[in-house]
Amino acid sequence: MKNKGKKRPSKGEFGYFQAEKKRRLLITIVLFAVPLSVFFAAWICLKTRNSIWTVGSIVGCLPACRSMVNLIMILMRKPMDEGIYREIRAHAGNLDMCYEMYMTFYEKSAAIDAFAVCGNEVVGYSSDPKIDTEFMAGEAQKIIRKNGYKVNVKIVKELKAYLERLDSMNEHKESLEEGIRFKPDEKYPELSRNELICHTILAICL
C-alpha cells in the first residue's frame, strides 16, 4: 500500500521487516522479563523456588515463547533491497502497490518484493531465486478470487520486465479499471477496491 509518511513502516510498506524485527524483539524481551522478574523476586523473598509464584512464572513464559517463535520467523526474512525499491517506485506512478512481503502457503513460501494492483490485474516481482512463480501466483489468485475479486495474478522474476509492465499498467490504468463494479467493504469502508485487494494479499503474508 502507499506509504503515508508513518514513522514505523506498516505491513506492505518498504522497511517493514527491519521495523518489525525491532518491534518483535522488544515485545519478546518484555514478555520474558515480567515472569522472570516475578520468579526471582519470589525466590529471593520466600527463599525457595517451590511456590505458586514459580508455577505462575512458568505459565507466564508461554506468551513469551510464542513471541520468540514469531521473532525467529521475522529474523529469517531478508529486507527488500533499497535500490530495487527505488527503481520500482520510480515506475509505480499512481498504481496501488504493496512491498516487502513473504507469502506463505502450506506447500511453499517465497519472498515477494512488490505487487501492483490495477483493476483485475495483479502483477508481482520477486528477487527470490528459489520462488516457484506459477505456484505462488496461482495460490494467491485462488485466495483473492475467493474473496470476491476476479483478478489475474502474475509474478515475474525479471526486474526490467516488471518495470515495463508497471509503465504499461499506468498508461492503460483507466481502461484496466473501466466497467468494474465495486461495493465498498463494510469493515473497511475507506478502502478502494485496489486497496482491498492489497489488503487480501497482505493477509496471506508474514
Structural commentary:
- The chain is an alpha+beta fold.
- It folds into 2 domains: 16-75; 82-203, no CATH class.
- Helices cover 53% and strands 14% of the residues.
- The protein has 7 helices and 4 strands, in the order H-H-H-E-E-E-H-E-H-H-H.
- The chain has helices at residues 16-46, 52-75, 82-92, 133-146, 159-171, 173-177, 193-203, and strands spanning 96-104, 109-118, 121-125, 152-156.
- A 4-stranded mixed beta sheet has the order 1-2-3-4.
- A hairpin with a 2-residue loop joins strand 2 and strand 3 (121-125).
- The radius of gyration is 22 Å and the shape is elongated.
- The model has no long low-confidence stretch (mean pLDDT 93).
By DSSP, the count of extended strands is 4
Envelope shape: elongated
Helix content: 40-55%
Q: Unreliable stretches, pLDDT < 50, 5 or more residues? A: none
Write down the domain tally: 2
Query: How would you characterize the largest beta sheet?
Result: 4 strands, mixed
Number of helices: 7
Per DSSP, what share of the residues sits in E-state strands of 2 or more residues? Answer: 5-15%
The averaged pLDDT comes out at 93
Report the order of strands and helices. HHHEEEHEHHH
Radius of gyration, whole Å: 22 Å
Distance between the termini: 15 Å
Brief sketch in words of this structure:
It is built from 7 helices and 4 strands; from the N terminus they run H-H-H-E-E-E-H-E-H-H-H. It has 206 residues and is an alpha+beta fold. It has a 4-stranded mixed β-sheet.
